[in-house]
Amino acid sequence: MTHSHPSVPAHAIAPAYTGRMFTSPVPALRLPDDPMDPQAAYRFIHDELMLDGSSRLNLATFVTTWMDPEASALMAESFDKNMIDKDEYPATAAIEQRCVCMVADLFHAENLRDDDPASAIGVSTVGSSEAVMLGGLALKWRWRQRVGEDWKNRTPNLVMGSNVQVVWEKFCRYFDVEPRYLPMGEDRYVITPEQVVDAVDENTIGVVAILGTTYTGELEPVEQICAALDKLAAGGGPDVPVHVDAASGGFVVPFVHPDLKWDFRLPRVVSINVSGHKYGLTYPGIGFVVWRNADHLPEELVFRVNYLGGDMPTFTLNFSRPGNQVVGQYYNFLRLGRAGYTEVMRALSDTARWLSHQLADSGHFEVISDGSAIPVVSFRLAGERGYTEFDVSHELRTFGWQVPAYTMPEGAEDVAVLRVVVREGLSADLARALFDDIMKSVTTLDRLKPAGHFDDQQHFSH
Q1: Taking Cα atoms as reference points, which of 20, 39, 91, 55 lies closest to residue 400?
Q2: What is the model's pTM?
C-alpha cells in the first residue's frame, strides 16, 4: 500500500510506473472497472506502441510516414469533421471537390470546366481499396447496360495480371465477377497486350492495367494494351474498356514521365484510381477514383439522401469518415503544386536509382527494377549464396530496417525478391546507411552459410 503525508494529495506524488499499474494490471480483453487518469492512460498506450517498428524505417510500405508539421496541425484540427456531412461542413466539402478536380485534371479527364467543379466526375475515398471497388462496380454496371437483360444469364469477368493487389480479388469475390488472372513469366512481372487480347470476350467488363505494381514498381504497358484492344474492336471483336490502377504511380508518373500516355489521353481508359496516402504524400487513408466523363459512372450507383440537411448525392461504399485526410491532401496540392511534386518525385527517383546502382555494383544482387519508373527498388540475390532473400530481410531487422522479402505471383512463384520503397523521409543519408547495413547483413550471412537460414516466410506487404 502507498502511504503519503496527510496534507499532500495522493495524486501529487503518485509514481509514474507504479501505484495502480503495479497493483492492478490494466485489463487487455475487457473494459476496466474504474476510470483512469488521462496521463496514465496515455502513458500505458504510448509505451506499448514503442514496441512497433519505426514507421520511417519501414521500407515495406508505400504509405506516407512523414508530412510537414503544418499539415499535421491542419489534420488534427479537422479530425472531428465528418466528411459525409457536406451541408454542415461546406468548406470541407468544397475542398474535397477541388481535390477531385485537381486529380481529374492531372489525368486529363474530359469536359473539365474552370467555373464548374462538378464537371470533374470522381470522389475521394478512404484509400485505393474503396476506389477500386467503385471503379469495378462502374465497369460491371456499364457491361450490364451493354448486353441488356441477358446479363442475368451470363457470368461477367475481369481481366488482370496475377500481380494485382489483393483488393481486386476481393472485388471479384464480393461482387460475383470471374477473375481472369494473366500469369507472369520467370523474367517478366507485368502483363502483355497479347495476353490481354487472348483473354477478353463479350463478357469481359474491363481490363485492369497497373501503373506501378506493388511487387516491383514496374509500369504495365497501358498504351500498348489499349492499342491492342482498339485493333481487336475494329476487327469486330469485343469492345472492352480499361481501368488503370494507378494507386502507386498516379502521383509519380505525371511528374517524372509527363510524356508517357497512360491516362485519359487514351480513349479506351475510362477510369483511374490513385492513392493520396502513397506518393500523394498524405498520411493514410485517402484515395481517389475519377472517370473520363459522366457517361462512365452509371446513375444507378449514385444515391441521394437528405437527412443530414440538403440534398446530397453519394456514391462511396463508406459513409461517415473524418475530413482530415482530404484536408491533408489539399494542403499538399497547395503547398507543392506541380513544380513541387516534380522536385520531390525526381529527388526520390534519384535516391532509388543511386541505391539500385550500388546494389548492382556490389555483385551480391541482381536488380529487377531500378527506381526509374517509380521510386521502388526490387532486387534478388545473385548466384548461389547458401542463404535466401528471407535471410537478408531477417538480418536487416537487427538494424531496425523493415525490408520485405516475398515470392512473385503466379507464373514466377520460384522467384523471391526484396523490395525497398523510397518515400519522402528516406533521405540520401538514410539510403547510404541502408546500403551499408545491407552489405553488413550479407557479410554476416556469408560467414554463416549454409546454416544461417530463417525459413519463416513473411507476408507480402502492400
Answers
A1: 55
A2: 0.90
